[in-house]
Amino acid sequence: MCGGCVRLACFAMATRFEILLEGEDPARLRAAGEEALAEIESLDRRLSRFRPDSDVSRINAHAATGPVKVEPRLFRLLERAQEISDLTDGAFDVTIGPLMSLWGFAGEGRVPSRDEIESALKVVGARNLILYEPSFTVAFRSPGMGIDLGAIGKGCAIDAAVECLREAGICRALVHGGTSTVYGIGRWEVGIGAARLEPVSGAQALHRVRLADSALSVSAVYGRSFERDGRRFGHVIDPRTGEPVSHTKRAAVWGPSATDCDALSTALLVLGESWLPELKARFAGYEGLVSG
Question: Domains along the chain?
Answer without folding.
Answer: 60-140 (1.10.3980.10)
